[in-house]
Design brief:
By secondary structure, the chain is α/β, with parallel strands linked by helices. Helices cover 21% and strands 27% of the residues. The chain is built from six helices and 13 strands. The strands form four sheets. A five-stranded mixed sheet has the order 7-13-10-8-9. A four-stranded mixed sheet has the order 1-11-12-4. It starts with 33 loop residues before the first helix and ends with a strand.
């Protein structure tokens, strides 16, 4: 595809003082949610590998001899970096006759498109949380009813179907607090974040900010006031009903984004065809390496 002069007739006539192209989003001004959710790191290798270690048992009363314990290796995870690229071609004649410098702005669109692509990929972790099974770890989706402990083989669930409400938030918090480690021991899970689509934003705001209980006539205090932060991902969380409760500290430990090659841009001129080529390139990988930080509800 080439940007040709006949497709941009208004650029050659001084009728319009300014022509503004329609932008999908101005990502240079919009704050991305990626850094709030992912552990963002750079990478200097083709892929990143992780292997988890099991927990130890409780300490014993010392009776003159130290009791030694052992643990088992957990599940392995590999994060591979994919390549992404996009380019545009601009005819020399079009660029020369462009009175409004619109073609000079076309390369900027590559940056906005790249940022949008990254945002979609980040959101795919949650959009596919109930459907995409990894080939490593325990083989279950991020949110599933059949997560298997590597140590004792017990099964745990972090998947529900309850619609978003104040009652559902509290019930989910209790379920997460009850998560156990790979040997069935108690672990410290502290849910403190709600991730919701824009359709649940107003309801979520009321749940975490109201002084009194939501939608009741009594003056009981709201247990959830100030307890949670909330992230809304407009347009990128594709289901209007699904929602997630998250332990943000554990999330940053187990949800990774690696930039192998950050976004970069190149320009090349083809003398034979009198075209200017603008090319963008980036390479990155993203994945969760443990599910324990998240509980998702797939709501019909």
């Amino acid at each position: 595809m080439v940007h040709l002069s006949e497709n941009w007739p208004d650029l050659k006539t001084p009728i319009f003082r300014k022509i503004v192209g329609t932008e999908y989003y101005s990502f240079t001004k919009k704050k991305s949610n990626l850094a709030d959710l992912f552990q963002m790191e750079s990478s200097d290798r083709a892929e990143e590998k992780f292997s988890s270690g099991g927990a130890l048992g409780d300490w014993d009363v010392f009776t003159g001899t130290v009791g030694y314990d052992d643990s088992k290796q957990g599940y392995d995870t590999t994060i591979e970096h994919e390549e992404y690229a996009k380019g545009i071609k601009i005819e020399r004649k079009l660029a020369e006759d462009d009175l409004y410098r619109i073609m000079n702005q076309r390369p900027e669109e590559l940056g906005r498109s790249a940022a949008r692509t990254r945002e979609k990929h980040g959101a795919s972790i949650f959009n596919e949380a109930f459907t995409t099974e990894p080939t490593d770890m325990d083989g279950a989706e991020l949110c599933a009813s059949d997560h298997t402990n590597a140590g004792d083989g017990a099964t745990q669930s972090n998947e529900g179907t309850t619609a978003f409400s104040q009652t559902a938030v509290e019930a989910t918090r209790r379920l997460m607090v009850a998560f156990t480690g790979d040997q069935g021991e108690a672990i410290s899970v502290n849910p403190d974040l709600l991730l919701v689509p824009i359709g649940l934003e107003e309801q979520g705001y009321e749940i975490i900010n109201s002084k009194g209980k939501v939608d009741v006539a009594t003056n009981n205090v709201n247990f959830h006031q100030g307890r949670y932060k909330m992230i809304v991902w407009p347009n990128f969380l594709t289901d209007s009903n699904n929602w997630f409760m998250i332990d943000s500290e554990l999330m940053k430990k187990y949800l990774y984004w690696f930039d192998r090659i950050p976004m970069e841009f190149m320009q090349d001129k083809d003398s034979d065809t009198l075209l200017a080529k603008y090319i963008g390139y980036m390479r990155y990988g993203f994945k969760w390496i443990n599910w324990i930080w998240c509980y998702g509800h797939k709501v019909a």
